[in-house]
């Protein structure tokens, strides 16, 4: 009976680890495919401080921006956030609005884009690309 319990525990841990590894490998493949996507210039249209996640004792707020870009005469918009700010939020938001940044877009689905790089203005880029990167959607 004790051996059966150990075997069950081992199997459970193995399945959980396998699931985590599979999900991470899938996400890495998604990131690698973006490197071949074409680029286009986008403009940050707006930005505001938003509650991006509710925690038990406090809310997490980040500056969330909307950018727009055009592919083959069709306009698209996407949202991204910045975290780990090193300057006042109002100043960062004002600095970002109107800024032009290069994005890579999916040629099969131009509404899907990716901001290459890890930081803008020293802040970490938080963006959504499928389920790849944790992004806090508007509440």
Overview of this protein structure:
β6 and β7 form a beta hairpin. 14% of the residues are buried. The chain has two domains: 34 residues; 90 residues, no CATH class. The chain has 139 residues and is of the alpha+beta class. It has a seven-stranded antiparallel sheet with strand order 5-4-1-2-3-7-6, covered by helices on one side. The C terminus is likely disordered. Helix content is 29%, strand content 42%. The chain has two helices and seven strands, in the order αβββαββββ. It is flat, with a radius of gyration of 19 Å. This is DUF3592 domain-containing protein.
Number-wise, the strands total: 7
What is the helix fraction of residues, given as a range?
25-40%
Number of helices: 2
- What gap, in angstroms, lies between the N and C termini? 49 Å
Low-confidence stretches: 131-139
| Beta-strand content | 35-45%
User: Widest sheet: strand order?
Assistant: 5-4-1-2-3-7-6
Encode the helix/strand succession as letters.
HEEEHEEEE
Characterize the largest beta sheet: strand count, sense, and whether it forms a barrel.
Answer: 7 strands, antiparallel
The coarse silhouette is: flat
- How big is the Rg? 19 Å
- Count of all domains: 2
**Mean pLDDT metric:** 81
The chain-level structural class is alpha+beta
Organism: Telmatobacter sp. DSM 110680
Protein name: DUF3592 domain-containing protein
């Amino acid at each position: 009976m004790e051996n059966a319990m150990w075997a069950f525990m081992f199997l459970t841990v193995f399945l959980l680890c396998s699931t985590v590894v599979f999900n991470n490998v899938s996400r890495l493949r998604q990131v690698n495919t973006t490197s071949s996507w074409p680029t286009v210039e986008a403009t940050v249209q707006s930005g505001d401080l938003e509650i991006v996640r509710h925690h038990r004792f406090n809310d997490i707020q980040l500056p969330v921006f909307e950018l727009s870009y055009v592919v083959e005469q069709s306009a698209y918009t996407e949202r991204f956030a910045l975290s780990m700010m090193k300057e006042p939020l109002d100043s960062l938001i004002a600095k970002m609005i109107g800024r032009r940044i290069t994005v890579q877009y999916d040629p099969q689905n131009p509404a899907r884009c990716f901001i290459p790089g890890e930081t803008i203005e020293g802040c970490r880029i938080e963006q959504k690309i499928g389920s790849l990167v944790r992004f806090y959607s508007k509440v």
